[in-house]
Amino acid sequence: MNHTDSITFNAIYQQLYRRAFSFTKSYVHNDLTAEDIASEAIVVLWEQSKEKEIKNPEAFLLAILKNKALDYLKHEIIKEEAFTELSSRYAEDLQLRISLLEACDPSEVFETEIQKIVQDTLARFPEQSRLIFEMCRYGDKSNKEIAQELGLSVKSIEYHITKVLKALRIALKDYLPLFYFLFPAFFRW
Fold it and tell me: Could you tell me if residue 140 is left (phi over 0), alpha (psi between -120 and 50 degrees) or otherwise beta?
């Protein structure tokens, strides 16, 4: 087939498309992809035949089909590997979260690490701030009751509690979801 042949594109398409499609589909296992590859390959064959003589059009077409099918399959492997990697990471993350929840013993967590963080944070405050905070949170007294007992204004009590709570939120940032759940009254307003 060469550029002087009077064979039309439609004639080439009708002559070679079914074989090109069948060959491609046997490898890619997808009708739409096989149709696209077969059509594209025939267009390339047609365009090349207009520019130069192609002695064996079937072999030329087969080479184009082979390369396009290989490109498609290699791309599918890359997509599958990426999907598998993402699935694997997601599965690992899920398993980690499941393990953490299964191992979660709220009383143990609070009694050890969280309690130490709370104590260390409270120790950094002046005695009056600590006392006000402990009366409010552990003694379950209202701001008004604390103010009357200590001879301070309610605003002063709120100021001390706010300072301590802010420091605790920062110190306990990694534990807050669990802490809020277990001790909602601790951070009440």
Answer: left
CATH of domain 105-187: 1.10.10.10
- Interhelix angle 154-171/127-137, rounded to 10 degrees, is 90
- Identical fold for domains 9-101 and 105-187, yes or no, is no
pLDDT in tens, 126-155: 999 999 988 988 888 889 999 999 999 999
Give the CATH number of domain 9-101.
Answer: 1.10.1740
Residues 55-64, mean pLDDT to the nearest whole number = 94
| CA separation for the pair 42, 60 (Å, rounded) | 10
Q: Judge whether residue 176 has pLDDT over 70.
A: no
The pTM assigned to this predicted structure is: 0.49
